[in-house]
Each structure stands twice: as structure tokens, then as C-alpha cells.
Amino acid sequence: MAKPATTDGFTTVTGNPDWLPPADDLKPIKLAIGKTRFELPNLNSTRDFPIDLLPIIVEVKTRYEKSAGLDGEDIGVKLAATIYEWLNATHPRVGLAIRMAKDASPLAMLLSLITTWAEQSSLDPKA
Questions:
Q1: Minimal CA–CA distance to 83: which of 54, 121, 126, 123?
Q2: Does residue 70 sit within a domain?
Q3: Is the per-residue pLDDT at 23 higher than 80?
Q4: Does residue 81 carry a pLDDT above 80?
Q5: What number is the average pLDDT over the span 10-26?
Q6: Does any domain span residue 6?
Q7: Which is higher by pLDDT, 22 or 33?
Q8: Is 68 within a domain?
Q9: Residue 20 DSSP one-character state
Q10: Which of 68, 83, 111, 118 could form a disulfide linkage to 123, CB 3.0–4.6 angstroms apart?
Q11: Residue 17: strand, helix, or coil
């Protein structure tokens, strides 16, 4: 590993750790709820991964792997709540479309969106 560059006593952070795969160009996931069309980042993309979701995803993965206390339903609710909060902050039209959906309840629409997003990103939504 090369030694980081320094300028005036500050070390330059490059964002290229050896253990992270190179940035990729995976296309965003195109989705629609009713007439609202939108794109979400591919969850397999090292370049576009929604970093704000990292803490909850790590928690879910850790608890599933270690079977630590929370059952799958509790984890799913916590994950759904965090994703909904992130969607409202970053894609307010999507949050509105979830709340206004005619086809299903807002919770059912959110869970369906999360599942579809994971599947379209080639992830196992149950993992």
C-alpha cells in the first residue's frame, strides 16, 4: 500500500482502500409507484451505494448471522423504517407516492418497494 500524500501536515484521504473493489458503473434501478417514476441506486454498486443505510444494513446482517435477540419481524420493521426515512429525505416524491398509493396500504407498498429494489439489485431481500 502506498503511503498517503500530505500537504501542510494534512494527510490526503483518497477513498481507494485496497480491500474495496473498484468503483463500478452499475445502472440505477428504475421503479414506479403509480404514475411516479424514479431511480434508486443499485445496492451492489460500490460507487452509488446509499451510505446512510449502512448502519441498519450492518445491524440486520449481524443480527441474522448471530441470531442476537431480535427476530426477523423486528429487524424487518427497523429496516423498513430506516429505508422509509432515507427515501423521504433523499427522494421525497417516492415517500409521497408510497403514502398516496391506491393499490395497497403504505406499509405494504413500502415493503414491496424494498423487496423489488433488492431483487432488481440482484440481492436476496431475505438475506
A1: 54
A2: yes
A3: no
A4: yes
A5: 71
A6: no
A7: 33
A8: yes
A9: S
A10: 118
A11: coil
Burial 65-86 (b: 16+ CB within 10 A, else e): eeeeeeeeeebbeebbebbbee
Which residues, listed in sequence order, are joined to residue 51 by a DSSP beta bridge? none
Whether 16 maps to a domain, the answer reads: no
Q: How confident is the model at residue 89 (pLDDT cuts 50, 70, 90)?
A: very high
Please give the model's pTM, rounded to 2 decimal places: 0.73
For 46-97, the three-class secondary structure string (H helix, E strand, C coil) is CCCCCHHHHHHHHHHHHHHHHCCCCCHHHHHHHHHHHHHHHHHHHCHHHHHH
State the Cα–Cα distance between residues 123 and 8, nearest whole angstrom.
44
Give how many domains the chain has, as a whole number: 1
Domain span holding position 94: 24-120
**All 3 cell numbers of residue 104?**
395497497
Q: Which residues contact 42 (CB under 8 A, 6 or more apart)?
A: 26, 27, 28, 29, 48, 120, 121
Q: Give counts: helices (H), strands (E), the chain.
A: 4, 4
Query: Is residue 64 a contact partner of residue 30, using CB atoms and an 8 Å limit?
Result: no
